[in-house]
Amino acid sequence: MAVPCVRLALLLCLMIPATVASPRSLRKSPANASASRPTAFFEVDRPPRGGPGRRCSTLLMSASFGSTFDKPPATAAYSPPRCLLKAGGRASAISLAVLEWRAACRGPQLDRIFGVWLGGAELLRGSTAAPPPNGIVWSVSKDVTKYASLLAAAGNSTFAVYLGNLVNATLTGVYHANVTLHLYIRRTPTTKPPPAMAPADLIVPMSRPLPLNGGLWFPIQSAADVASKSVALPSNTYRAVLELYFSFHEDDELWYKNQPGYQNGPFREVTARVDAVLAGSVCPFPVIYPGGIHPLLWRPIAPIGSFNLPTYDIELTPFLGKLLDGKAHEFAFAVTNAVGVWYVGANLHLWLDPGGTSTTAGLICQLGRTLDQWVDKMNTRRTNKKENGSGNSHSRKTPSLGVEEAEWTEEEEWAPPLAMESKDEEGGGKSWDVRQTYRYNATDGCYFRNVTSSNYNVVSDHSNEFCVKGAASAGVGAVTAALPAVNLP
């Protein structure tokens, strides 16, 4: 007897920040995987590129995470690897640094958030996969060269990993993880890069201190909640960049699909303030976790950005005139319209003048319009568009905070993101097909990948490194799927 089965065709077109495109180790699932063999999960992303020089690898931690929710993080002592010390111990000797997270889990379990810190500075945040009963293996390789000064810092520091997991009679999976640092050491001295283009000379962590239960991130429980930390900057700082880490959970895990008027609507914004003055804000990329929307969408191809969550930079150099007074200044973080918990942390990247003990800074000029001027201009452009009969197209302009004026125009046609089709299947068995396409165009190279899976098996996988003229400067991804009917959240 034919059993009716509704199939869902889902197309998600995602504009991905360039920071998402970190190196990744990708592997195919075996074509004839047995039910007892763990499945290899992976995220479609730009693969790692080896740096110049000799590579050395150091295992930083090997740990298991069972009932670890709201327990202290796993910790280990860290000191610069021997190969770096032999090269002089300077951060400039590192041509490339890659942090590799490799993990496995057998038994049913939920997707869990994890974080990795060195000396309180966050290096990696990601989600685990959502393991089926036969288990999974997966890996993440992230370019952490921008933390070179932290990796080369003399003395001992604390390496910490938190993965909040719960184990019970139903969820029996325990996560086992190895974290390895791969350094590529230059064989000969390199020419000095342009000022402020090399990795920062100093990284100041903005996180909760050890010892503690849970992750080192700050929990933001509501729109009224504010987390802060006071920091005094070195007097010879000539550039400052605030790097934000955050993830969203509980009632706000799917904030981007809220209807207006429900759970504060679908708008979220993470703000950073310096001494109560707004320094910058970012609109989060709506990362879907591997158990979100429809779990079969992400087996074995994980959601874009889920294994290595994107970070966001806010340029604080225009504020140095106020920050270089030798006093501690308060850096505060909040989330507009937050309902559930957000985990927020930050690293302050500082570039120091090696030829002086103090820097004089000030805002010389500000190129940009006031907020009222921007609103008036956007309203004028919308009116002109309507009068010219532009249909569904629209134009938007966005200023660059306090530094310079940046304008862009976007033309887009609206299309429904979901399409439904019905199909009868014999036997009533569940099966699913997923295809992800990904394109990354940047000044340091390009990457394209088109991969298709059927159930847990990868059936086609094509990639190249050709640059496409006129393509977006960041990553662009799409997901197409045919799935068995389920009750969507």
Automatic annotation (TrEMBL):
Keywords: Signal
Residue ranges, annotated region (Disordered): 381-430
Database matches in InterPro entries: PNGase_A, PNGaseA_N
Domain of life: Eukaryota
Signal peptide: 1-21
Source organism: Aegilops tauschii (Tausch's goatgrass)
Pfam families reported for this sequence: PNGaseA
Biased composition regions of type Acidic residues, renumbered to the chain: 404-414
UniProt key word Lipid biosynthesis: no
Keyword Nucleotide-binding: no
Protein name: Peptide N-acetyl-beta-D-glucosaminyl asparaginase amidase A N-terminal domain-containing protein
Domain Peptide N-acetyl-beta-D-glucosaminyl asparaginase amidase A N-terminal: 54-362
